[in-house]
Amino acid sequence: MSLAVAVATDGVRIPLTRERVADVARLVLRAEKVRDAMVSIAFVTPRAISALNFEHLGHAAPTDVISFAFAPAAGAEGTVGDVYICPEVAAENARESGASLREELTRLVVHGTLHVLGYEHPEEGDRTASDMWRRQERLVARAVAAARAGAGAGASRSARSGARRSGTGKAASGKQRTTRPAARKTAAGKTASRKPTSRGRTVERAKARRRR
Questions:
Q1: Which of 14, 21, 111, 146, CA to CA, is 20 to 30 A from 91?
Q2: What is the distance of C-alpha 178 from the center of its chain?
Q3: Average pLDDT for residues 44-63, to the nearest whole number?
């Protein structure tokens, strides 16, 4: 079983580590009983996601997330997809809903990964009542709980490590992995096996596929 998740931050800053983002995507894949997958998740600028939104969905505005699902290479099996997320639009979502930016970005990772797996929601009307949205919120709750549990365990490990050091009380600081994802390619360079999908929260209200 291989669940390969590559994460890139293309000119943007996010309050989640790449490892945390990959963990959220893998949580979704495992919950959906996926055994083999290669998923790329890129956090991009409003300009970059606007270009993707216009080219693939015909909307001339930024959106929060766009997903692409691809057929595996000949003779291969498994799930292959790209997810593009705009943190700036996510921040606006978070302000409106009262959620933290960490939670909103987690929600978009879950949402985009579910789209890669074939989940759909209504284009119009109350999409929050859809099966996809209910599944999404259950997985977001699990991911947030897992992050809190991990943070608590990490704090305990740091405290123990600091106690073993020569009286400084400080744990060794780690460096965030900054390697570029080997699996990631731009969506424009691929032919999607089905129509690209978006959660659809655009900045321009007249063109928005509203979240609620």
A1: 146
A2: 17
A3: 96
Q: What angle do CA 39, 140, 199 make, to 5 degrees?
A: 65
**Tally of helices (H runs) and strands (E runs) in the chain:** 5, 5
Q: How many CB atoms lie within 10 A of CB 56?
A: 18
Residue ranges and CATH numbers for the domains of the chain are 2-170+182-207 (3.40.390.30)
Q: How many residues does the chain have?
A: 212
* Total-model pTM: 0.75
Residue pLDDT, tens place only, 107-164: 999 999 999 999 999 887 788 889 999 999 999 999 999 999 977 665 555 555 554 4
User: Per the structure block, which two tokens stand in for 56?
Assistant: 């693939």
In whole angstroms, what is the distance from residue 61 CA to residue 52 CA?
A: 10
Q: Which of 78, 98, 74, 6 is nearest to 43 (CA)?
A: 6
DSSP state of 55: I
Helix (H) or strand (E) holding 113: helix 101-116
For residue 114, which of 11, 164, 41 has the smallest C-alpha distance? 41
For residue 124, what pLDDT is reported? 78
